[in-house]
Automatic annotation (TrEMBL):
Record SMART domains: AAA
Domain of life according to the entry: Bacteria
GO MF assignments: ATP binding; ATP hydrolysis activity
InterPro entries for this protein: AAA+_ATPase, ABC_transporter-like_ATP-bd, ABC_transporter-like_CS, ABC_transporter_ATP-bind, P-loop_NTPase
Organism: Limnoglobus roseus
Stretches assigned to the ABC transporter domain: 10-231
Protein name: ABC transporter ATP-binding protein
Protein's UniProt keywords contain Lyase: no
PROSITE patterns, per database record: ABC_TRANSPORTER_1, ABC_TRANSPORTER_2
Keywords: ATP-binding, Cell membrane, Membrane, Nucleotide-binding, Translocase, Transport
Amino acid sequence: MSFAAGGVSVEAVGVRRAFGPHVVLDRLNLRVAAGEFVAIVGRSGSGKSTLLRLLAGLDQPTAGEVRIDGRPLAGLSPRTRVLFQDGRLLPWLRVGENVALGLDDRRRENAARLLERVGLATRAADYPGVLSGGQRQRVALARALAAEPGFLLFDEPLGSLDALTRVEMQRLVEELWRERPFTGVLITHDVAEAVTLADRVLLLEGGGIRAEWPVPFPRPRATGSPDFARLVEGVLGRVLGRPAQMT
């Protein structure tokens, strides 16, 4: 399968991460093609956040390596951004300043366009504290994309939102990914969200990737279809421990 140009390839090769005697990831292998969107699901404590930190360059493996476009990752990459659950906006900066923080003149113009694209151009002069949770996440998404990343990691960014806002944000993420291609990795507990957004869903369990489900449905996903529901149920059943074969 080929994907839209604009992203970077991402690999984890034989990755192990231990904290003293406690091994979280062990001989984990992962490959994400440039422009692909992958979701990683698993139970709490399975190592999803640890894997995200390694892929982002925020932590280093005990053994093995992470590669971006075939080159070993030794720290933070200028082509990588992370969208966290809490948005992590700077409360003393206005919305427009948050989105444009650290950008050159060309990307500042891009920041203004993205703020308009996420529907918050009229809130550029406001401080984050007066925004709703969904609006803050829209600002955080605009800020991440304004830097034109090749790789965007999503760390449960929609987990605290109400159901309707979450659906709206899922649609916005997908639309922006299609407009401005990047390689995406989503960490989530929400299996339906994973199937809605991803090209593939991977199960992290026992320190490695234990199952994989390609998502064959056209975009935007018809989340009310029987086929969609069957795939969600199959993934959820495996996450909860019902046996399933690797696909």
